Structures are given as C-alpha cells and as structure tokens.
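## retry 2 of 3
previous attempt timed out at serialization; input unchanged, resubmitting
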Amino acid sequence: MIEPRLEAAPLLLPAAAFTAGITAAAWLPIPAPGLIAAAAVLVIAALASHRHSRAALVLVLAGVALLGALRMAGPRLPADHLARRALDGTLSIEGRLADEPVRWTADRARLLLDVDAVHAGPERLPAAGRVQLTAYGELALPLAETQRVLVEARLHRPAGFRNPGGFDYPAHLRREGILLVGHARADRITALTPEVASLSRCWRLS
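## retry succeeded, writing output
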C-alpha cells in the first residue's frame, strides 16, 4: 500500500525529509560548513550505493534533510553566545535595549535586548546575542532605547508554523539577529542606567 502511494506523490518523502531537517536545525543549530561536509559525504555514499536502491534512497533523503537544516543554519556563533547556554529555568540577563519597548497592551510589552552578561548568583559572566522578550505586567519604570537593564527571563528558541510557502517566523527573527525569545515579569526588570530620551521621542516632543 505504501509504494503505490509514494508513486502517486513522489515528492512526499523529500518534502517530509526537508521539513524534518528544518525542524531539527531549529532546536539543534549546526554550523553551515558541517552541514555541507555531511551532505557531500551522503551524496558520495548514495552514488556508491546505486545498486542498492533502498540504501541509496535513505542516503538521498538524509541529504535532503541536511539541505533543510542548511536553510536554517546561520553564521557560527561565538563561544559566549547566549544560544549556546542551557535554557532551563530563569536567567538573569544584563544588556542594552536595542529599541524602545513596544507596548501591545497596558500590561504587555515587547523588549529587544542586546545581551552583555548573564548573572549566576554573585558571578557576572560575559555573554552575547540579541533576545526578544515579552514583558507581562505594567512596566513600573519608563524604559528607552540604549538603556541598560537587568531582566529575569525564561528563554527558548522561536517556533512557528512552517507550512510550505507560509510565513517563517523563526527565519524572520534570525534575519534580525534574534535566535532566542522569551518572557519576563515587568516587576523583574531593573534599570541599571537612567532613561535616555531616544531620537524619536525627541522628535515627538519638539
């Protein structure tokens, strides 16, 4: 029953393998050079296995999955990038606001943070990366672009529906340099520097 179905839909297995590669890469980022090298090995192995059709098919599908992963692959991350850390539990993140907070409602806002460090108890560890946070609750302090803050947040990798031809939200964030998203309580955000009026705010006031 399976083979006739595959003959009727010959692109079903490649599409499934490609999607599986995209999904795997979203959770386990692999540098592009490693993916290209692995794909080359699979192509050579598939050519060598041309007399064994099933083995060759498996190798080709694995190569297609690597192409899907390659679509998600970005530049090699620095050793201190936040995406390399374990993301279990709450992290205390120090950084600078890359933009003014965007208020969706009175008790929900989006923060874009360029990370400088992670606090582990009394220890301050250098870190890098850009994260997008949703702050729940009314912000007690006015926050502005370039202001330094300390945030207790829960982070995770962005996820989204990857329907063929549909909007790829994780890819959109990745193009903006955002590999992690998360949420935080507004009362867990501490301003480390005074608010600095942004240029756009100055224009509104003038």
